[in-house]
Design brief:
This protein is an all-alpha fold and about 500 residues long. The protein is built from 19 helices and no strands. The chain has 2 domains: about 400 residues, Growth Hormone, Chain: A; about 55 residues. About 75% of the residues lie in helices and about 0% in strands. Helix 2 packs parallel to helix 8.
Length: about 500
């Protein structure tokens, strides 16, 4: 049976389905945890800024380890790294659900983040490698569909689980899903590494110094971003962290340009399509992530919706992302990337500017269309933009480049949430309320005022992204686009 499956003409779709289980679980985990966050402070007898570290610690761990794990998967085999990462992710979820204190919950979510770092880059790389270059936009689009469905299920199912069974079940639900995903990957994925991967005896060494420097840079930057609104942007600790980031980054760049086997080949940024695509992706996540973090607080603490109702409110927007991802990918395969990245980013910006007019008495007629417009635009943008970026790199770099793209996403998400939180709490403090999201129920008008300003700032980031997307250059179809270092053949089976 397995031999027949490996030889099947539809093998690429079996690969996609097997890995999609883990991708779905990962996205659903994030949405479920965000919906559960407002209920955790009372359970653990703590405050919202502390509970925020359940999400921040998870994303911080993933961000710190993504590049090393992506490079490792390119060297020793993506299947091996993916399976191990999936097992770690499942274990972290089981332990998180049994946490008896907020500290242990944060630590177990960080452990889950270690598994997430191993699966994110390697899983996407295997999906992309299974399809030929002319269908790259298609697979990117369907990846966005999985992300969109996970984003639907996360808040919706998470709200139901929190209301009916408790916050623990937003973690426990991933145990059966994870086991199913591991079993599917063991059955479907073969042992062959992707095209041009180094063979045994020819494998280059692992860049341990580059991994250490990149990890140091990311941790110092993200720690500064997540703590600046409490400690103060000009406090000695924050300034020291920013200085440390600059020092680590400078050392990383210096080393990567000189080592024969770099963690990330920085010469990729000389390729216009790659550098502008990465920049546009950064601005898209920088602009859109804060709204997804803040909306549950607005819906639950200002408009007084339950966690279950909050999840259901966010379902249509996620559904539109799931639909527009394949549409954007298919269109970018046929007609080029630029017009769809520009249109998608502009739609996302428009949704944010509409949300920036919310009041403490706004109705769902205002909220839901704006969320739909933003999510639909992001679905179209991301599939087309990722299509353009991957087309500019060699197949043997898919693992580390996919990890780098996820790193850009996670870093932008943390910075976006940190900036928005700083703006909201500063506005609340200026109106005489505690500078904390804990006080949202006491000061709905002050919170909403800060939310409006933060969303306008995020919308401006998206406008910058529109400009960057427009600068990508001549529109190329997949048939005429250059295949840098990549054979014009059907993709080989992933490892």
């Amino acid at each position: 049976m397995r031999a027949a499956l490996l030889q099947s003409s539809s093998y690429k779709w079996w690969v996609f389905l097997a890995i999609s289980i883990g991708l779905f679980s990962s996205v659903m985990d994030h949405g479920g945890v965000v919906v559960a966050l407002p209920t955790m402070p009372e359970h653990f007898e703590t405050d919202i800024p502390t509970v925020q570290w359940v999400v921040v610690g998870y994303v911080l761990t993933i961000s710190a380890l993504l590049l090393p794990m992506g490079r490792l998967s390119d060297q020793i085999g993506r299947k091996r790294v993916y399976i191990i990462g999936s097992v770690v992710f499942i274990g972290g979820a089981a332990l998180a659900g049994t946490s008896t204190s907020i500290v242990t919950l944060i630590l177990f979510k960080a452990l889950q983040g270690c598994g997430g770092a191993m699966t994110q880059g390697s899983g996407m790389a295997m999906m992309i490698s299974a399809f030929p270059p002319t269908e790259r936009g298609k697979v990117m689009g369907f990846i966005m569909t999985v992300v969109g469905i996970g984003a639907i299920a996360g808040p919706a199912l998470g709200g139901i689980l929190v209301s009916a069974l408790g916050w623990e079940w937003v973690f426990f639900i991933h145990i059966p899903l994870g086991v199913l995903g591991v079993a599917a990957c063991l059955l479907v994925l073969n042992e062959i590494r992707s095209v041009n991967a180094p063979q045994d005896g020819q494998r280059t060494g692992f860049d341990w110094l580059g991994a250490s420097l990149s990890t140091g840079a990311l941790i110092t930057l993200l720690m500064a971003m997540t703590n600046a609104h409490r400690a103060g942007w000009v406090s000695p600790s924050i300034l020291a962290a920013i200085f440390g980031f600059v020092a680590f980054l400078a050392a990383f760049i210096w080393w990567e340009l000189r080592t024969p086997a770099p963690m990330l080949d920085l010469r990729l940024f000389k390729r216009k399509l790659f550098s502008l695509g990465v920049s546009a992706g950064f601005f898209s996540f920088l602009g859109s992530s804060a709204s997804m973090f803040m909306m549950p607080f607005y819906l639950q603490k200002v408009l007084d919706y339950s966690p279950r109702e909050t999840g259901l409110v966010m379902v249509p927007a996620a559904l539109c992302m799931a639909i527009m991802g394949p549409v954007g990918g298919w269109l970018s395969d046929r007609y080029g990337w630029r017009r769809f990245t520009v249109l998608g980013m502009a739609s996302g910006a428009a949704g944010l500017f509409i949300l920036s007019r919310l009041t403490e008495n706004s109705s769902l007629v205002h909220v839901m269309p704006a969320l739909i417009l933003q999510s639909a635009g992001m679905g179209m943008f991301h599939s087309a933009n990722m299509n353009s970026i991957i087309s500019a790199v060699e197949r043997e770099r898919y693992g580390v480049v996919s990890s780098f793209l996820n790193l850009v996403r996670n870093s932008a998400q943390i910075i976006s949430i940190a900036v928005a939180t700083a703006i909201v709490t500063a506005i609340m403090a200026s109106q005489g309320y505690p500078p904390s999201l804990d006080a949202v129920s006491q000061a709905p008008d002050a919170f909403t005022s800060g939310l409006r300003i933060s969303l306008r700032v995020m919308g401006c980031f998206m406008v910058v992204g529109v400009v960057v997307s427009a600068l990508k250059g001549t529109e190329l179809t997949q048939e005429s686009a250059p295949r840098i270092g990549e054979p014009q053949t059907e993709a080989s089976q992933p490892d």
